Each structure stands twice: as structure tokens, then as C-alpha cells.
């Protein structure tokens, strides 16, 4: 579960082509990081995978199934946004429960999943608080908790740490890596931060103007960048 393939996927907004034909395979359980400068199409690519945008052409497959025209809720993926998108008037428990409630899941199963997510994210003591009573890092954990309880086949993160201060960012980076080790679920993680890419990824996808410049492990990209752009972005001495 969690294998995603893009076959000649393109995306245009009106006349403007943002993603030229792009092929990509994300393997089951992989931690894949999309990096590239602002405006290069990272969020668009993630939103295409999530189904929040329609592809202009090409095919997206999830676990062997054609998902190109599948609505987001059917894809079995969970997106974690940079802005957290929490409901301020609801408790942490209710925020985490929300997607399960919408899916009509039995209450005892909802409770079981909330307790498990809260435990793995150190939120057990905060379940009755509201988002406004939490720190930035705790809010980010709630957003992740809300994704975990859906037991998705892949997590999609769009610059989840960019609102946090530097120290907290390092902390959350480690927590997300630990979560990946524990769950072994596919994660696609968008960032413009080289350090995040180099320390978290199994596989880095370097994007420039919607094109894939290079795909490889952090070590491969560091040792054998294909061009100056990749070298510059990854920080290798070339
Ligand atoms: P990134 O996440 O890498 O910063 P985006 O995927 O947000 O880049 O944007 C890629 C390009 O697509 C940008 O030029 C942006 O202006 C354009 N774009 C993104 N969404 C839309 C939209 N809904 N309508 C028109 N242009 C868009
Ligand atoms: Mg973006």
C-alpha cells in the first residue's frame, strides 16, 4: 500500500503550463521529498496527487488503481497543511475525530484511534484543549493526528514546518521521521529547505519550473548532482 505512479502528468492553469509531462514512481513506504525554489510547482504536484487539482493530461495510479479521476476522499491519502487548518472552536479531540466522524465511523473505533494517535504524538494531556491554547508544535501534531487516524496509505505534507521557529523545526523534523519509522507508511514531503530534504528523505525529487531535474537518494544527489542547479540546491561542492 502507498505506491503512487505518475504517468505523463501535466497541469496547466489557463494558458500557463506549470507541470510539463512528468513521470514519477513513489514506492510503498518511501519517504519522498519534493524540493525546489518557490513557484516551481511543488504544491501543485502534491495537490494533483491528493486530487485537490485535476490533471490536465496523464494518469495517476495509486496502488495499481487508476486514481486520475477519483475524488480526494476515495484516494486513501491524508494531506497535512502548513496552515494546520484546525477548527478553533473545537477541542483537540474533536479536531482529530472530525474526518472519522464525517466517515461515520463507530464511536468506539474513533476513540481507539484518537487514543493511539494522541499517545504517539504526545498529545494525551491536551485532548480537551482548543487549538488556541496550544503551542505551534502542538498544533502541528494535532494536524498530523488528524491525518493518522484515517490510516492513509500515504501522507502528503506541504511545507508543514515553515511556520515554526528554528528549534521547533528541528524537533518536529525528528518527530516526523520517527513517525515514518514507526508507521512505515509512504510520505511525500514538500519543502524548499535543503536540510529537511537531506536529513529526512529516502528519495529526493529536485524540481525546477515543473521539471524533474534529478531523482535520487540524498547521498546520490550530493555526490553526483546532474547539473549546477541540483548541486547548488543540494549544497554539494561542485
Ligand atoms: P511551489 O509550491 O513550488 O511554490 P506552486 O505549485 O504553488 O509552487 O506554483 C507553481 C506555479 O503555478 C506558480 O507559478 C503559481 O503561480 C502557479 N499556480 C499555482 N496554483 C495556481 C492557480 N490555482 N491558478 C493559477 N496559477 C497557479
Ligand atoms: Mg508551495
Question: How would you describe the overall organization of this protein?
Answer:
The chain is of the alpha/beta class and 238 residues long. It contains eight helices and ten strands. The protein has helices at 42-50, 92-102, 107-120, 136-148, 166-183, 194-200, 218-223, 228-234, and strands at residues 4-13, 16-26, 31-35, 57-62, 65-66, 77-80, 154-158, 186-191, 203-208, 211-216. The strands form two sheets. Strands 6-7-8-3-9-10 form a six-stranded mixed sheet, with helices on both faces. A four-stranded antiparallel sheet has the order 2-1-4-5, covered by helices on one side. Helix 2 (92-102) crosses helix 3 and helix 3 packs across helix 4. It starts with a strand and ends with a helix. The structure holds adenosine-5'-diphosphate and magnesium ion (MG). Residues 13, 18, 36, 38-44 line the site of adenosine-5'-diphosphate (ADP). This is ABC transporter ATP-binding protein. One of its GO terms (molecular function) is ATP binding. It comes from Salipiger mangrovisoli. Keywords: ATP-binding, Nucleotide-binding, Transport.
Amino acid at each position: 500500500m502507498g505506491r503512487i505512479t505518475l504517468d505523463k502528468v501535466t497541469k496547466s492553469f489557463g494558458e500557463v503550463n506549470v507541470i510539463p509531462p512528468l513521470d514519477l514512481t513513489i514506492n510503498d513506504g518511501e519517504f519522498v521529498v519534493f524540493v525546489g525554489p518557490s513557484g516551481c510547482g511543488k504544491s501543485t504536484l502534491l495537490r494533483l496527487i491528493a486530487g485537490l487539482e485535476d490533471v490536465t493530461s496523464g494518469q495517476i495510479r495509486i496502488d495499481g488503481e487508476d486514481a486520475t479521476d477519483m475524488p480526494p476522499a476515495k484516494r486513501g491519502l491524508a494531506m497535512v497543511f502548513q496552515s494546520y487548518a484546525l477548527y478553533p472552536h473545537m477541542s483537540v479531540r474533536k479536531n482529530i475525530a472530525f474526518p472519522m466522524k464525517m466517515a461515520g465511523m463507530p464511536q468506539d473505533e474513533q476513540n481507539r484511534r484518537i487514543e493511539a494517535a494522541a499517545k504517539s504524538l504526545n498529545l494525551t494531556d491536551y485532548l480537551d484543549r482548543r487549538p488556541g491554547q496550544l503551542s505551534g508544535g502542538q498544533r502541528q501534531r494535532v494536524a498530523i493526528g488528524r491525518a493518522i487516524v484515517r490510516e492513509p496509505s500515504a501522507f502528503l505534507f506541504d511545507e508543514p514546518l515553515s511556520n515554526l521557529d528554528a528549534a521547533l523545526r528541528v524537533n518536529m523534523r525528528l518527530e516526523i521521521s520517527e513517525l515514518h519509522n514507526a508507521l512505515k507508511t509512504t510520505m511525500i514531503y514538500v519543502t524548499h529547505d535543503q536540510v529537511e530534504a537531506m536529513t529526512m528523505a529516502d528519495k529526493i525529487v529536485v524540481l525546477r519550473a515543473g521539471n524533474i531535474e534529478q531523482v535520487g537518494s540524498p547521498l546520490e544527489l550530493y555526490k553526483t548532482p546532474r547539473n549546477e542547479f541540483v548541486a547548488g540546491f543540494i549544497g554539494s561542492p561542485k
